[in-house]
What does this fold into?
Amino acid sequence: MDAIPTKDDAAREVERLKAEIRDCDHAYYVFDRPRVSDPEYDRMMRRLETLEKAYPELAVPDSPTQRVAGTPSEKFGKFEHSAQLLSLANAYSTAELAEFEDRIVKEFGRAPDYVCEPKLDGLSIALYYRDGKLDRGVTRGDGFVGEDVTPNVRTIRSVPLTLRRPVNLAVRGEIVISREEFARINRELASAGEESFANPRNAGAGAVRQLDPRITASRRLSFYAYSVMDFEAHGLASESAALDFLTEVGFVVPPFCRKVADLPCAIACIEELDRQREELPFEIDGVVLKVDAMAMQRTLGATSKSPRWAVAFKYPAEEKETVVLEVEFSVGRTGVITPVAILAPVHIAGTTVSRASVHNLELATELGLGIGDRVVVRKAGEIIPEIVRVVGPEPGVERRPLIAPAECPGCKAPLVKREGQVALRCVNPSCETQFIRRLRHFVGRDALDMDGFGPAVLEGLAQLGLVRHYADLYALVEADFLKLPQTKEKLARKLHAAVAARRKVPLARFLYALGIEGVGDFAANLLAECFGSLEALLVADFETLRGIHQIGDVTARAIVDFLARPEAQEELCRLREAGLEVFVEKTRTRGDRLAGKTLVVTGTLASMSRKQAEDSIRAQGGTPSGSVSKKTAFVVAGAEAGSKAARARELGIPLLDEKQFLELLAGGAVPGSVMKND
Ligand code: IVH
It folds into this structure.
C-alpha cells in the first residue's frame, strides 16, 4: 500500500483520482466503453478511499466513493426504479471474505447460510411485471433512474413475456452474451470495416442500448434472473427460495447457484467454479456470496452503495507467461510514441494474445524490458493486454535492449521530449500517420460515428491523397471510394451515405471528435451544456473555462491553446464551408423549469456542491444569485444555513430544503408549501 501523503498532496491526488474515476465512469456507464481495466479502476477507488479515510474532510459529496456510479444517457426514456438497485462490494481474497463474515457474526453471534451465485459479467437489468405480463425492462442506470429499454428486452428469448402466474413482480438479473455470439458479432463488425467490441459485456450492453430493437434481436442475448426485488410481497423468506420461485414462474436463473452452510463451503464453491469457468458459455468475473435468510438481510441493511449482506468475490485477472519477439513503436493521434510488444502468441481468458501495450517508454525502462525477454502478460478486464513484469531473459533467445527511437516511425521526423514530460513525441504537423490516427478518432463511434470507416478505409483514403483534412471527407463522391482496394459499388454507396448522414452533428460529439487534450466525452458534454453553441465556446477565454465546475486549469488551458492554433481555426473554417452543421441537442437536463427565476443557495447541501447546485439552476434557465432580495424566487437552504435563510424568512421568500430543491430540478411541482421555518 502506498504511503499517505501530506494533506495538501493528498488533496491534489484526491482531485486527480476523482476526475479520472469520473471519466472512467462516464465512459463505462454512458458509452459502454471501458477506459481502464477493472483492477486498475478498483485500485484508483481504493486509493481514493484510503486518502479520504486519512483526511475525512476530503470526502465531499461529489466523490465517487459517496455514490453509485453512472449517469443515464439521453437516448432512451428514463424510468425511476421502484427501489434503489444497489451494487456489490468486492472482495479479492479469502481474508476479505472472512472480514465480511466477521461483521455478520458480530451482529448475530453466529455465521449465516449463504447462497453462492456466479457473478455474470453483463448488463444489469430490472424487469417489472404487472399481472404476470412484462411491463418494463429498465437498465440499472445510476441505481435510481435507468433507461427504459423495454422494446429491446422483449426481443430476448429468455425474458418471459408472460409469467406462469399472474403476479406483480420486480426482478433483477443480468443480460449476457455468450462467447460464441460475441465472436460472431465481432467478425461481422470487422468484415463491415467497423470497430469491434472490447469484450462480451460491451457487446451485450451495446446490443441492449440500440435504439432499433431489430438490431438487439439480431444479437442473441440471454437473460439470467437472480433476485426478486419485492420478495416480501411474494412471501419469500430466503434467497434460495427466491431462486426457486424465479424458476417456477418462468425465468432462467444462473447455472451453479448453490446454497452452502458455511464460509469454507462457499470458498470451495468459488474454487470449483474457477476451474470450470473457461468452459462456461459466457464470461463470469467472480462469485456473489449472499446471506440466505431475508430476515438477516433486513437486519444487516445496506450502505449508500451496496448491501451488507452480500459480497462479490472477484477472480484475479488472468496472467500468462510468454516471450517478447519484437517491440514496435507506434505514433498516436497526439504524436506520443508508444511501444507495442509483439509476443509469442498465448491464450489468455478466451482469446489469443500476440500484442501488448507497454503504455510508455519510461514504463519499459522501469520494467527492465528487453526484446527476447520472458514476460508476464495480463488481460486485465479483458481489454488491452499489458505486460505486468519481466521474468528474465528467455534461454536460447538472443536478448536485445530496447532503444528509444530517434525518429517518428511514420514520417521519420526527429522526436522530441517536452520539458517536464516523459513522453517522446512526433511534433511534425503534417505527419500522415498521426493524421490517420486523428481521423480514426474523428469518425469513431463516440465522435462523428461514421459507419464503415475502419482503419483500412481511412488509411486508403489518406494514401490516395483524397483526404488530407477532416473536411475532405465531405467532398468525397462514390467514385472516390471505388478507388479503394476491395471496394465495390455497394460498399462505396454505403460509405458515401455514412458521411452524408453526419452533416449535422451534436456539439458534444463534435468537441470530443476534435481530440483536444483532456476533453473526453465527459468534458465535451459539459462544454456543450455550458456554452450551448460552438461560437460561444470559440470566444471563451481561460478564466471563463476554468470557472466551469469540473473543468480544471490544465484542460481549460489546453482548450484555449487548441482553439487558438491557426491549423485548428483553418480546419473549423473548412468544415463549415464543407457544410458541417454543429447543433446542440435538447437534453432533459436543459430545461426551462426555472426560467426567469432567481434562486439563492445557502448552507451545505449533502448531494452536491454549491457550484453544482448553481449549474443545475442555470441548466433549468434560472439565475443563481449570492444575495437574497425581494426578487428572489426561492432560497435553497442546506445544512447550517445562516443569515440568508433568516433574510428569506423576513422577506417571506419560500425556503426549500435539499429534497424539495431536487424535486424542483427533477420536474416536480414548484412547492407551494415550504420547509417549516423552525
Ligand atoms: S445481486 C443487492 N447477483 O454485479 C444485490 N448481482 O457489481 C444486487 N451481478 O450490478 C446484485 N451477477 O449487475 C447479483 N448473481 C448476481 C450477479 C450480480 C452479476 C452484477 C449486478 C450488479 C453488479 C455489482
Observations:
- The domain at 319-401 is CATH 2.40.50.140 (OB fold (Dihydrolipoamide Acetyltransferase, E2P)).
